[in-house]
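Practice problem 4.
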């Protein structure tokens, strides 16, 4: 299946609700879930033709499945990409977006402020395959410039970053990456496909954890890789087919439903997050509040330039001590302690002891992840209830 021309004339919200929908012979309203591992052939010759790629059809759900294709096509319409592959998780998407084509002896340059597992992939997994990796401070263009003096295959970054909410200049890094011969791979999870369009800013490949805002309701894992048809056909497709990171059709169906309401949800996430950020910034108990939408954010101007909204994550520093951060989190009654984000329920995380525990104290200091640092993923509850909950927890934290 491919995206049809009339679907491309639709505005974003229509694409989110209807893009990629293909009805079966039963003419169902909602997208069907094809929970099948394989597909049958009338004649042995048909199977032969399918395996020779002489006909386009479904063969095996590790390669492709009708429900997954509806999700992939809807994601293409949303991102403005030519092709997409759905994966079982965000990490499967991030790993496949690089491991499918970067070879031993080649080089990858990445930013330091990354989701914990993404950093681990760069510093531990890829070097084990003979891929040289270099880590730079993503906000410092001079460091990118130096690192990209050598020929490089891929540049990997995340903006806004998790959990420090650093903003990286996508246009500038894309130019430097291309001069070094590299493809720019962007993990766009924090921005969501709605608030930032990396492909328009020069990126070549975009990776998502669909577990976050695309589902957004805490139900399932998923991921997506988007890029040109040439990238997907020539670089990604064989790796995807033969190593098996594919998504369950059931999850593709859940995520199709997630996309239908994503714009409404992300709008509310951003509005609530802005209210909580302003509230926290005015509180004397809070050492520092970080939110790209606040004028006090060191890269607010850049965020305003390359994003159309500032996202759902707000961070606060309660002044160095883990005890105080834990007292605050344990006193929260409405906001749950959990390491997920982008969920309809507001969630609090202590990165230093959870998501970023493994990277070591020195690296954490470098990233501004102090022991008093708390990440709040602001959900869809009434912002006044969230404020009241945070206020009473701050008081209890002392
Ligand atoms: C969650 C997340 C991932 C990994 O996604 P999973 O679905 O948990 O595998 C990668 N990058 C970022 C920025 C994330 O927030």
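Answer key:
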């Amino acid at each position: 299946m491919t995206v049809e021309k009339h679907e491309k004339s639709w505005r974003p919200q229509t694409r989110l609700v209807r893009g990629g929908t293909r009805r079966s012979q039963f003419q169902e309203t909602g997208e069907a879930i094809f929970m099948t591992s394989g597909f049958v052939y009338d004649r042995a010759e048909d199977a032969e033709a399918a395996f020779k790629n002489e006909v386009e059809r479904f063969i095996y759900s590790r390669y492709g499945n009708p429900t997954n294709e509806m999700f992939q096509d809807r994601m293409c319409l949303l991102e403005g990409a030519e092709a997409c592959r759905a994966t079982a998780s965000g990490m499967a998407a991030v790993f496949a977006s690089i491991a499918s084509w970067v070879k031993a002896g080649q080089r990858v340059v990445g930013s330091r402020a990354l989701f914990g597992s993404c950093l681990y992939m760069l510093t531990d997994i890829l070097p084990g395959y003979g891929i040289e990796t270099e880590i730079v401070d993503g906000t410092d263009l001079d460091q990118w410039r130096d690192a990209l003096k050598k020929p490089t295959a891929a540049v990997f970054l995340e903006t806004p970053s998790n959990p420090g909410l650093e903003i990286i200049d996508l246009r500038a890094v894309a130019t430097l990456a291309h001069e070094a011969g590299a493809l720019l791979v962007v993990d766009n999870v924090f921005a969501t496909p709605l608030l930032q369009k990396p492909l328009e800013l020069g990126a070549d490949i975009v990776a998502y954890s669909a577990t976050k805002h695309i589902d957004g309701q805490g139900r399932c894992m998923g991921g997506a890789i988007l890029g040109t048809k040439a990238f997907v056909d020539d670089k990604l497709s064989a790796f995807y087919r033969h190593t098996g990171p594919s998504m369950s059709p059931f999850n593709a169906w859940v995520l199709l439903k997630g996309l239908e309401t994503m714009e409404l949800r992300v709008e509310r996430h951003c509005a609530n997050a802005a209210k909580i950020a302003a509230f926290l910034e005015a509180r004397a108990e809070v050492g520092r509040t970080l939110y790209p939408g606040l004028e006090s954010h060191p890269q607010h101007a850049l965020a305003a330039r390359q994003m159309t909204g500032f996202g759902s994550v707000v961070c606060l520093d309660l002044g160095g001590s883990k005890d105080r951060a834990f007292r605050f989190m344990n006193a929260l009654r409405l906001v749950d302690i959990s390491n997920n984000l982008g969920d309809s329920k507001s969630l609090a995380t202590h990165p230093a002891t959870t998501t970023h525990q493994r990277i070591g104290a020195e690296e954490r200091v470098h990233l501004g992840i102090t022991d008093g640092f708390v990440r709040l993923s602001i959900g869809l509850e009434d912002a006044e209830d969230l404020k009241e909950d945070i206020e009473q927890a701050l008081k209890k934290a002392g």
